[in-house]
Amino acid sequence: MAVLAGFAPADGGGRWEVGGRMAPGTTAKAGKLRQEAVSLATVARETGVSMSTVSRIVNGKSGRASAATVARVAEAIERLGYRPNPVGRALRRRASRVVAMLAPNLDNPAMAAIAVSTEAALRAAGYVMILCDTHDRPELQDDYLQAMRDQFVAGYVMVSAVRSRGLEQALGRGDPVVFVARRNPLGGGAYVGIDNRAAGADAADFMLAQGIDRPAVLMAAQNISSTAERAAGFVERLVARGVPESEIRRASAPGLSHIEIGYAAARILVGAGGWPRGLLCVSDLIAYGAYRLAVESRLEIPRDCRLVGVDGNALNRWIAPWLSSIRIPYESFGGHVLEQLRLLWSGAATAEIHVPHEALP
C-alpha cells in the first residue's frame, strides 16, 4: 500500500483541486471557479495575460511584467485560491519536493506515530510525503524503492528497513536515505532513533527497584537490531548488577505481528518454567500478547507479574493501564528526520541521532 500524504489529489499539469467557502467580496463567478480545478490557465484567463507570464510571476520571475500586472496576477491567485502542484512541478524540473517513507506494518501504532511526525515536519518545510507499507518484506521494499525512484523523489525515509538488493543499490548510487527506528541493515548511514541498549538497561533497573531479581524477557525470533539491542541492554544491566545470566529466562516466537509473537513467546516461557515476577517485552504490542495469555491463565497483572514494554503507546492509558512502558517520543522524530535529509541534500556529513527516551519512574 502506498499513500500520498500532505496535499490534495491533482493531475500532473499544474492543476490543483480547490474547494471551500468564498472569501468576503468574492464574486459568484470566482466562487464557481473555486469549486473547480484552478490552474495557471484559469489565472491567465481571469487576468487577461499569458500563461507564461503567470508562470513566471508564480515562480518569482516577473521579467518584463509591469508592477500593475504583477499585482493583478497576485490578486487573482489569492482570490481564486490557486496553489501550484508540487509533484507536477517536481516532475517537470526534476527537482522534487516529494519524500518517500517506507515503513513496515502500519497497523503498529509506533510506525503510524513515526509517519505522522515525519509527514508534519516535511509538510511544514514545503515537502510532501508518499507513505509505503513494506510489510517487512525485502521484495516489496525493493518494489517501492524502484517505484519511488521512478517518481523522482528527493529522498527516502526507511523505517525499520530490511536488507535487500534494492536498498544496496540505492545506497550505492548515493541516494539520500535516512534510517529510522532500526539502523541500516547494511551498516552506516544517517539514523534517527533511541539508544535501545540504554532503554533495556533502564527496564532492568526498574525491575530490580521493584524487588524483581529474576525477570525474564520476550522477543521476536526475527530479532532485528532495535529490539535485539533492547534485550541485550536488559540482560547486560542485570548481569552487571549481580543477576546470573543463566537465570535470566528468554523466549521468542516467529512472525511479524508483535501481538501474536507476545502471546506465543509467553506460552513458551511459561510452559518451560512458569510465570516470572517480571517480564520485559521488547515492544508494547508484545506486552499486549503476553497480557492476553496472563488473563487466560487467571493471573492478575501487575500484582502477579510486572509487564514492562517499550514504546509508550498513547493508547496505553486507555486500554493497558496495567503496563509499565518506556516511552519513545515519536512525535519528535520528524524534525530530526528532516534535519538528516537536509544534511544529505547539502552533501554534509551525518551522524546517528539518539532521541532521549523517557525512563520509568
From TrEMBL:
Q: Does the keyword Lyase apply?
A: no
Q: Which CDD domains match?
A: HTH_LacI, PBP1_LacI_sugar_binding-like
A single Gene Ontology molecular function, please?
Answer: DNA binding
What InterPro entries does its record include?
Cro/C1-type_HTH, HTH_LacI, LacI/GalR-like_sensor, Lambda_DNA-bd_dom_sf, Peripla_BP_I
Classification via PROSITE patterns: HTH_CROC1, HTH_LACI_2
Which stretches make up the HTH lacI-type domain?
38-93
The protein's UniProt keywords, in alphabetical order, are: DNA-binding, Transcription, Transcription regulation
Domain HTH cro/C1-type, chain residue ranges per copy: 39-83
Which branch of life, at top level? Answer: Bacteria
Q: What is this protein called?
A: LacI family DNA-binding transcriptional regulator
Q: Which organism is it from?
A: Bosea minatitlanensis
